[in-house]
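Comment thread on ticket #2218

A.B. wrote:
> Attaching the input chain for the structure job we discussed in standup.
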Amino acid sequence: MLSIAQLTMMECFHAVSLAKSPLIIGDLLLKVLFSVVGFILCFVLFFKERELRNLVHINAKIILFVHFLAVVFSAAAQTVSAMYDFLRFTVLKDSLECSVSLLSHNYAVAVTVPIVITQNIITLTLLALGIERTIATLMAKSYENKKNRYVSISLLAASGFITVWWLYRFFQKIKAKPVFEQTYSVITVPSEISGDTRLNTLCLAILEAIIVVLFLLILILNLKLRTKARRVNAPLGLKYQVEENLASVTVLLPMACVQVVVFTVTFALTYGLGHTHDLETDNESSLLFTNVSPLYYVALPVIWFIQARQKRYEKREAEKGELTFRKQVKRQAVNRISVAQEDTRVHFNMLKEAFQDLPVTRY
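C.D. wrote:
> Ran it. Output below, let me know if you need it in another format.
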């Protein structure tokens, strides 16, 4: 069995080889860039573009707020992790044991937990939005009048319970595994936990695929309900709710599609590129570029901005159409008044001419 010093030397060689790889450095720079840009855009656009939030029910607004909050925290966690890795591979080379600063076991835990938790919350809140929109579709006639928050609170509570359960499993396995006083070249965790992370990524990818199917079914069902809502005797609440559902699904469906791609690629990279390089302690690490979740941090605000711009364009076109209609009505009214005035003038002229032709009788 190798000593701690020998294992540390092996990790040092591995870290030095990673620091010389342009692919690793480029990946870390892209992660920092996408995470920072996504953090800023999500924070600004969510509070600035309020038109999309105002389109949906209060329950959907609450879940959307938690979803964006999870994305912001996830982007912040990814930024800190990627920035530190980039700095220690390029700048922080003053370690006594190695020319590249190595990582401790506690750092691996501290970095892994926030990233995985926020990714879970992002997916679970999107699923909660799908369930909430399904309820809104099934109760389209009366859902708009229900102003209580029971639906959103229940769905978020269920998401929180699942997250706490995952945390409990994570820390139970951390306690069951002996902690070695060793430093590592990359984020390294016990193999059981790494297996849990891969399984978690697979579950998220499958869950996102289910969410996409759910949103497609909601879209199809609401398109059918729109036909009924356009009838003259259709309730006003049904008409409003169907339009709200369609407007929200057109935003949520692209979000779910991007998440499917992100978690599927992450799962494939984790399984394809993951490797165990520490056989002595049965610890496992994966290459730094297996997680592509920063793509969603940028994709989400871009989707939000495009949809908000589209809604504003549709609103302007509707206002233009209404203004044109009003102008046409006014023009027709003016024309009718002009015709009536012309008819009156003609009649008065005829009467005037008739009276002028009559002989004048003097008494």
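A.B. wrote:
> Thanks. Noting for the ticket: Residues 38 and 298 are 4 Å apart (CA to CA).
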